[in-house]
Amino acid sequence: MKQFFVFIRKEFYHVTRDYKTLLMLVGLPIVLIILFGFALTNEIKNSKIAICDYAQDEASQQIINKIAASNYFDIDRVILNHEQIYSAFKCGKIKLAVVFPANFNNDLSHLNKAQVQVIADASDPNTAVILTNYLSSIISDYQLQLRQNSSPQMQILPEIRMLYNPELKGATNFVPGLMAYILMLICVLMTSASIVKEKENGTMEILLVTPMSPFLVIIAKAIPYLVISLLNLVIILILSVYLLDMPFNGNLLLFFAESGLFILTALSLGLLISNVTSSQQTAMLISLLGMLLPTLMFTGFLFPLENMPWPLQVIANIVPAKWYYIIAKSIIIKGLGFSFIWKETLILAGTTVFLLVVSFKKFKIRLA
Hints:
Blueprint: H1 2-17, H2 19-35, E1 47-53, H3 58-69, E2 73-78, H4 82-90, E3 96-100, H5 104-110, E4 113-121, H6 125-149, E5 155-163, H7 171-201, H8 203-208, H9 214-243, H10 252-276, H11 280-298, H12 310-316, H13 320-332, H14 342-362
Parallel strand pairs: 1-2, 1-3, 4-5
Antiparallel strand pairs: 3-4
């Protein structure tokens, strides 16, 4: 065990002596968290919404039909009460809910005024604003149709409510995605490149002939990047909470446990890449094209996954960062516990085990 800690100390020396790499590892998260401090807006289509129709009358049904005919919304379910609405939001099954009060058509006909409650998941503020604007436009179009056919005084007033992020702060959306991106960048790219570098320099053969197990040698090389990743996670949280005023509503211990699991997933992927490549250029190319670009494209914090064709949505399911992004948002923004994220956790754990098994099977004790 003493030899194992000696190897870990050696790897820390390697990292700290390379000032350019160290600056990138520690400085890049700070730069990214500041540069990505502006919300990104995108067109949203086929977003899953829920309808809660207490009225069950002609007017409410006509509006529901117009919503269903729109390309922007996909009515996922008809909900009977508010408790089911909040449960659907917590599980992440819907982005928006529309509630028609009782006597909706009666109020519209006799009082010339009726209200519709619109509840949006504002943990992604840009999507929430866009969806509520789309829905308000549909209601305004129906209202214009009513004024042409009947009394010009009729009004439908949307009552909009933003869950989880009423102030619509952009940090709630990009910070969890940026965490996934930075952890993938450090763990996959740097781990794979550092191990391949040992092969290119010929020092890996020296390490493999030491009394310590070759597997412990590889693990020792990954531990410094695990520590640096956790440090970056702390830096991101501090900057997000105190600089960007992002609320942290969940359990901090659960968040770090889930983040540690995702870091292990990324490290396992880096080990696998290092075992199947023989040069740093190849390792970096595979890391960038194979995982870092998919992290940006298929996580969901830059481009809504609902907009993509179904084959790309299927591909997104094999990107580990997507599941960590869901976990981070659920804990940080929604304040949910493990009972709501156990499926995503199980997927990450299974991915980690699979990557580790494949990595160790691909690992060659003899390089030549």
